[in-house]
Write a structure and sequence with these properties.
The protein has 266 residues and is mainly beta. The protein is built from 6 helices and 20 strands.
């Protein structure tokens, strides 16, 4: 048995085909189905499936999504906020998570829903009180995220639970890229958001106020992270409104593109 996920960089997707759900390694336009799951040793089965024949699901099913607010100075400023002295943390429930191609349901209780393109960290092992020098050891990889936010509700209610935790408010995908290191993030990956093909956000992960390692230290001082848990690392400037019918895409350099369409919530 080979620990593929740790011995070589791979892209790991979660998918469904003919009613069956599994994980696979993405190579070009094919997916090599794996035996087991990516949080332990696994083998490639050698069973290749064309990507266009499967439905890509959220790459993980997190127990919790821990999100960081105001981690880009320009984004904090565009909403009239100062950069906080300590990271602003909040949760998005597991029921908010959707995958690539899944619809974002525009909530009936909001009239101002915004996109927020973000780099997401996927945790690979149970961890608590992680020292900074060991932070990279608890990371499985990275994926794209969209922290969909009911901005009017956020401003009105102050608590962010409903504004950022409603169903379908956390698109993740299209897969987990294991070939990146915190040093790559610090060096600066491009984070872009487009709406109907028009660029809305373009930033770099090097502009984060606090790097990935510091976020892991801060979060695990308080709570245990489990395999598959996700950390959203904040959004660059340029957030803006979404409307029913819009197609929103988050692209992160070295990972891929996560695309979702906004629909009226039924």
């Amino acid at each position: 048995m080979i620990n593929e996920g740790q011995r070589q960089p791979v892209r790991i997707a979660r998918f469904s085909i003919d009613g069956n759900v599994g994980f696979g390694v993405v190579e070009g336009d094919e997916l090599d189905v794996i035996k087991g799951h990516p949080f332990a040793e696994f083998e490639r089965s050698g069973q290749k499936v064309p990507l266009d024949k499967v439905r890509l699901l959220p790459p993980v099913l997190p127990n919790k999504v821990v999100a960081i607010g105001r981690n880009y100075a320009e984004h904090a400023a565009e909403l009239g906020n100062a950069v906080p002295d300590v990271p602003v943390t909040f949760f998005k429930p597991s029921t908010s998570v959707i995958g690539p191609g899944d619809p974002i349901g525009y909530p009936s209780f909001s009239q101002e829903v915004h996109h927020e393109a973000e780099l997401a960290v996927v945790i690979g092992r149970m961890c608590r009180e992680v020292p900074r020098e060991r932070a990279k050891d608890v990371i499985l990889g990275y994926t794209c995220a969209n922290d969909i936010t009911a901005r009017d509700v956020q401003q009105r209610e102050k608590q962010w639970a409903r504004a950022k935790g409603f169903d379908s408010s956390c698109p993740l995908g299209p897969w987990v890229e294991t070939g990146l290191e915190p040093a790559d993030i610090a060096a600066g990956l491009a984070v872009q958001c487009t709406v109907n093909g028009e660029q809305r956000q373009l930033g770099r992960t090097s502009d984060m106020v606090r790097p990935v390692e510091d976020l892991i230290v801060h979060i695990t001082e308080a709570m245990t992270l489990l395999p598959g848990d996700v950390i959203l690392t904040g959004t660059p400037a340029g957030v803006g409104p979404l409307n029913v019918g819009d197609e929103v895409a988050v692209t992160i350099e070295g990972i891929g593109t996560l695309t979702n369409k906004v629909i009226k919530r039924g």
